[in-house]
Specification:
- With 111 residues, the protein is an alpha+beta fold.
- It has a domain of 77 residues: hypothetical protein PF0899 fold (2-Layer Sandwich).
- The chain has 2 helices and 6 strands, in the order H-E-H-E-E-E-E-E.
- The strands form 2 sheets. It has a 3-stranded mixed β-sheet with strand order 2-1-6. Strands 4-3-5 form a 3-stranded antiparallel β-sheet, with no helix packed on it.
- Strand 3 and strand 4 form a beta hairpin.
C-alpha cells in the first residue's frame, strides 16, 4: 500500500505540473528483485486510486529481467532470479545491473 501511495503521489504531482485534468494510464517497470509483487501493486492501485486524479487510470506493469555484470570477465548477462552467476564464465562475483528496480516509466495525461 505504501508503494502504491508513493506512486500515486508522484503521478499527482506530475499531473498537476502539466495542468492535467486526469490521468489515463500509468506504466511502471518492476524487476523480480525489487521486493514489489506486481499483483499486490495492482490490487492496491485498484483501491487507492479512488477519489484521485487517477481514478479512471489504467495501470500497466512491465516486468524487467534480472541482468548481472561479471566482475571477473566483464560480461553482462541475463540470469534467473535464484542464480546470479555469469552465463559467460560461470563466475559468482557479479553485480546486479537490472531487475531490482521499480520505475515509473510513462504517464498518459488528459489535458
Amino acid at each position: 500500500m505504501a508503494v502504491c501511495q508513493a506512486l500515486l503521489s508522484q503521478v499527482a504531482q506530475i499531473a498537476q505540473q502539466h495542468g492535467a485534468e486526469a490521468v489515463a494510464c500509468i506504466t511502471v517497470e518492476i524487476g523480480p528483485l525489487s521486493g514489489v509483487e506486481p499483483e499486490q501493486l495492482r490490487r492496491a492501485f485498484a483501491v487507492m486510486r479512488a477519489g484521485s486524479g487517477s481514478a479512471a487510470a489504467e495501470l500497466l506493469i512491465e516486468t524487467v529481467a534480472v541482468e548481472v555484470h561479471c566482475l571477473a570477465c566483464g560480461a553482462d548477462s541475463e540470469t534467473p532470479v535464484n542464480r546470479l552467476v555469469c552465463r559467460t564464465c560461470g563466475g559468482f562475483r557479479t553485480r546486479v545491473i537490472a531487475g531490482d528496480e521499480l520505475r515509473l516509466r510513462r504517464i498518459e495525461l488528459r489535458v
